[in-house]
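INFO batch 0412 | record 1 of 1 | parsing
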Amino acid sequence: MQIKKGAILAGLDIRMRPALKTADAIWREFGQELVITCGLDGTHSAGSFHYYGLAIDCRTNYFAQGEAEKVAEKLRNRLGVCFDVILHDTHIHIENDPT
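INFO prediction complete | emitting tokens
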């Protein structure tokens, strides 16, 4: 696992640990190294889980066409209902949202 230069994970909530471990394993299944591009840094919408240490963004631009969708689906299945997994054009957003 790599952390993009400038990405801040210090202060990440312990409840995000399963997401990090699961994402790392899934990226390896697809022959890629997980790169966390955002944690508590960046500019996000008001109330974003990033600001509370409950969200990360993971790079996807190196996956072949269609693979990012498969990666996101595996994340949803393995992480369960306490996590939201949102596929964007350049990354997958994972947040701990048990509600």
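INFO post-check: The helical segments are 17-29, 67-79.
INFO record closed
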